Amino acid sequence: MTTKINTYKKFSNVFLLIFALFFTFSLKSIASEPQEEIVSEVHENIGAAVSHETIKNPNANVDIAAVAMEHISDSHFWHLYGEGHDAVSFPLPVILYSNINGLQFFMSSKFNHGHDAYGNYSIVDEKIVSSNPTESLFDISITKNVAQLLFSALLIIWIFLSIASSYKKQGITSAPKGKQSFFEPLIVFVRDEIAKENIGHGYAKYVPYLLTVFFIILINNVIGMIPISANLTGNIAFTLVLSLGTFIVTNINGNKDYWKHIFLPKPFFLWLILMPIELAGIFIKPFALMLRLFANMAAGHIIVISLVGLIFVFKSIYMAPVSIAFTLFIDLLECLVALLQAYIFTMLTALFIGASTADHNHDGAHTDDDEKLVKGH
């Protein structure tokens, strides 16, 4: 009981710290920048039709939508703070394959925050394009999202290798300490409450995949709440790959009953109606996984920035308490959503795997093997 209480305290402290950082930097990212620089940056990046007088006008309106979309979008620069030529950011590797120049490698600093061209190449809406119309580019650059994915993957590997090393030294009979006490309840929860409960017999071989999915989502959800980080789980390409993994694992391990239920559903006189629905369901389920995670994580970031931006849209001190109150509420909600979305994605993945591997006939009766297992044979 004491271990559980200490674990809950650690979780609450971590989430409160993330919440404080998220709110502070979200407010600062808009308030600390001159409005004319923000409008100028929007004009340069998304081609908005802003006149010269509007850009020079310090009372010009802030385009909150553009600021929000810039925050959640991918980039060839790891932006820390500032706007325009005064921006402080880390350059990231650019890797291009051209049908004319072959494989090329250089740093994104060559583009001077997107303001300059490098050779035939320039950045337009965070996409590298060539001035040569006959040149085709294949961009495999290490963007901000890719860099965070690599970082989170290395972080997970380090965490679990160190935990495994601790278990080898201490054994499994002694009380967990340090990282073990923090992560062990989560690992046991995924194993017993998600994998075992939803997959059943043979669940053990799927536990490593489910643990990977759970922690890669959870860690990137938490990191993504820090304003200077990347919103990886709010990128639909990332959620697409995760759902594709679930699609492959589910269907590769599907047994004959699973496929028979799809291609020969009962009652047979409704086969023409039921078979296309069951077949479409194979693709709809992972597609729903992809959209759910993407929409929830992207929406949270957009809402927080939009609520903070109300202060600068209305330009009234009376709007500040209302804006801050709503932002505080959404920030606290995002701390819960970070954990909840990792759980939901992992649980639904386990449900899909369990449905594809269950030994049932079409009437829902258990097979002889299942009955023997229940009787203890």
Describe the 3D structure.
The strands form 3 sheets. The chain has a 3-stranded antiparallel β-sheet with strand order 4-3-7, with no helix packed on it. A two-stranded antiparallel ribbon has the order 1-2. Strands 5-6 form a two-stranded antiparallel ribbon. The model is unreliable at 1-59 and 361-377 (pLDDT under 50). It contains 12 helices and 7 strands. It folds into 2 domains: 93-141, no CATH class; 145-365, no CATH class. A hairpin with a 6-residue loop joins strand 1 (77-81) and strand 2. With 377 residues, the chain is mainly alpha-helical. It starts with a helix and ends with a helix. The protein is 63% helix and 8% strand. The radius of gyration is 25 Å and the shape is globular.
Quick description:
63% of the residues lie in helices and 8% in strands. With 377 residues, the chain is mainly alpha-helical.
Please describe the topology of this protein.
Blueprint: H1 2-31, H2 35-46, H3 52-56, H4 64-72, E1 77-81, E2 88-91, E3 93-98, E4 102-107, E5 121-124, E6 127-130, E7 137-139, H5 144-170, H6 179-199, H7 207-224, H8 236-252, H9 256-263, H10 271-314, H11 319-357, H12 368-375
Antiparallel strand pairs: 1-2, 3-4, 3-7, 5-6
Helix pairs in contact: 1-10, 1-11, 4-10, 5-7, 6-7, 6-11, 7-11, 8-10, 8-11, 10-11
